[in-house]
Amino acid sequence: MYLLLVVVSFFTFAACSENAPEEIQVEEVDASDGQVGDLMKSPDLPPNVTLTGNINEGRNVSLVLEANTSKGVLRIAQSLADANGDFKIKGAIEAMGLYQLRIEESLQQGQEPKVIPLTLEINDSVVIQVNFKTFNVDPVYSNTRWAEALNGYMKEMEKFVAWQKSIVNPQQYKQEELMDMMLKEKKSMDDFTVKSIKKDPSNPANILLMTNLYPNMGWEYWDESFLNVLKKVLTGYEEAYPGHPMTVNFGAQIAQLEASYNEHVAFIQKNIAPEIEKMDPNGQVRRLSDLRGKYVLIDFWASWCNPCRMENPNVVRVYNAYKDKGFDIFSVSLDTDKNRWVKAIASDNLSWENHVSDLAGWQSDVVSQYQFQGIPHTLLLDPEGKIIARNLRGPILEQKLKEVLDK
Fold first, then answer.
1. pLDDT attached to residue 3
2. Homologous superfamily, domain 1-12+22-144
C-alpha cells in the first residue's frame, strides 16, 4: 500500500495504554532508501503535485506532505503557511495513492496529530480550505477529480464520530442494542459510500471510501451486497491503474474477503467448520483439514483457564480410549505466553500432535471465525468436517463418541 492512514476505527469509544510517552514521536525514513518502495520520486526531480489553500487561524504553521509506510513516515515535501494561513506545497510522487497532509507540531500525551487524507494523482493541483482547530474533520477539497467524493465522505465520517463521542457510557447498553444503534447511525455513511463508488468506481478517493465497506464489526453485522461494490472498485482500478501495487493488493484483499465470507456462510448455514491453519509449538504449520476422514474434537482452551485445565483429564481419557477408532483432537490455545502454553501441554499430558496457537489470546481470528465468547469451547466434527455437536464435556463427550464410534 502507498500509505497506511490511521483512520478512526468504527465504534471505538475509548482506548488507553500504560506507560504512554509524554510526547509523541514520529519515526521518519529516508526517501532514498530503496526498501520503502515507489512511494515518491527522487526529491531532485521536478514536483508533479501541488497543494495550495488556507488554514484559518493557521498563522505560520509548518505543513508536511507525507506517506506512512511499513518502514515509518516518508516525508515528501514541507512548507510554511504565511501570516494569513495561506500555503503552497509541492512534491514529487510516483503514482496515484493515499497520502496525507500534516501540521508539524509537538504533541503532548492525549493530543491527536492534525492530519488529513489526500488521494493524490500525478499532476494534481489541489486546493484546500480548513480550520486549524478542527483540521482533522472539516477540510474542503477542490480543483481535483476526487474532491467531491472525499468532501462528502469526510462530512459523513465527522457525523458518525460525533455520535460515537456522544455515547459516554456504552456499558449501559446491551451488546445487541449497542450494535443496532451503531448500524443505524452508520447507515448514512454506508449509503454515501456505495452511491459514490457506483458513480465512479476508479475514483482515487475510493481508496479511503472502500474501507467503510469492510466487515469491521464481524460477518454477522455485514451487508453482503458490499462485496459486489468492492468488486466494482477493483474492476475500476484494474482498468485505470493496471499493475499498480494498490490494485494488486486490493485484488488480493477482495479474494481473501470473499473466501472468508463464503467460509462463514458454510459455517452458519451448513455447519462446516472453517479451516484453521496455525503453528504448533515447534513452528510446524498444522491444518484442521488435514484431519478429514476422522471424527475430530476441536478444543479451544488456554493454560490460564481453570475450567479448561479441570476438563483436560477427561479429554485425555477419551482420547486414549478412542484414538485408535478414528478419533483425534485439534487443540487451539488462546494463550499469549508460549512457555506457559507448552508447559501446560506437558503438565496435563495432552499427548496428541495437533496443538496450535497464534499467541494472540482473545484477539485470535479463531474467536470471530467460530463465534464463541468463553472457553473451554468444543466442537465435534464428522469425517467430512461437518459440526455434529458443540460444547461436549465430561460424560456427555464420551457418550457422543460411543454413539458415533462404537458402532
1. 31
2. Immunoglobulins (2.60.40.10)
